[in-house]
Specification:
Number of strands: 31
Low-confidence stretches: 333-376
Number of helices: 2
Shape: globular
Mean pLDDT: 85
Structural class: mainly beta
Strand order of the largest sheet: 5-6-7-8-31
Strand content: 35-45%
Radius of gyration: 21 Å
Amino acid sequence: MEITGYAHFNDIAEVNGYYYYSETFFNGLFRVKIGERNAEFLGFFPEEDSKQPDLHRKIVKIGAKLYFIPMVAWGISVYDTETGSFQYIRIQSNTNQIPHYSELIKVNNEFILFPERKHADFLKVDFDDNSLKRCDWLNDVVKKRIMQVANDDYILAPFCAVEHKGMIYCAVKDTNIIMKIDKKKKEYQEIKAPYDVSLKGINIIQDRLVCTLKENALIRYDLRKKIWNIEKFNTPCKNKVYPYLTVASYEEKELVISGREDKLIRPDLDDCEVVLPKELARDAEGTLLFRGFKLQENKIHLFPRGSRGVLTYDFDSKNCDYNEIKYDKECIRIHMKKSDCLLSNGDIMVENDAYKLSDYIDFIKVKKQNNIGVMT
């Protein structure tokens, strides 16, 4: 993978004027002062592979602690922003395969982790006692059925589930089936779309389920009227695998968020294509442009999975802006010689310069001497 010195992440947490995040392309915790562009390295996530990409899906902030929710990780990493120390909540697994998770949903005051692949379990996350518990009924009944209808090992995509009025609605990846799950009553219902489509992400917008597809379109399901409709976009689609990620909204304005397309879609506008800034290049060809996002009043901030900056879209003005977050010499984004991100000559690319691995090792020694990023 080519190293450019740009930050990539799926989520951020704001603490005392800083944004904290987990780097997407490798193992590393960073923070950046709000309004600035150079990130500060805080430490490695203990007990995780040093070169594992996509470690974390979301960040949950409770007091001074940040809980990094796994995507492709062995557990939940907890970082104390006051002491600079780590804790770890390991996922118990009956296999040697690293767990894969797609989503964390809060329903009826419980946090539920949704598996991305068949070998991972539905888990309940208890932030009071830092525990993970297997959800027996969800695994033994609902997941069993999901595995029967799913087309491959990947059963649930990012943004696969939403909570609405105590119910969970879960889109089974690359099928036309939505599972309506009542965890309290231990009941579920299959809602099957009357179209030959492949579901990806799902959201709830004003009592309507809205799903992105493998196709260049959206489908909507009105929960009150029980009516389906499909909307095809009047703009060409280049990617045939994962064109769009999910749908976000502000008031009644929808925004279809790019997966591997180099654009966004506003379905309510005649000219529905949102052109992205030319500077917002993709670091790794074929990767998702964005994965996570946050809504802030009439604006949405899209976090870079493969792009080179945070994209901000204004629903009212329809304008895009972006902000780069980069690594300087003291924030070298590679940490082990065996990492796939190292160039073949052993140098590390940061911005437009190359730095030797020895510089980085010296930097880490100083961090350890100062007790920064040490596990407790």
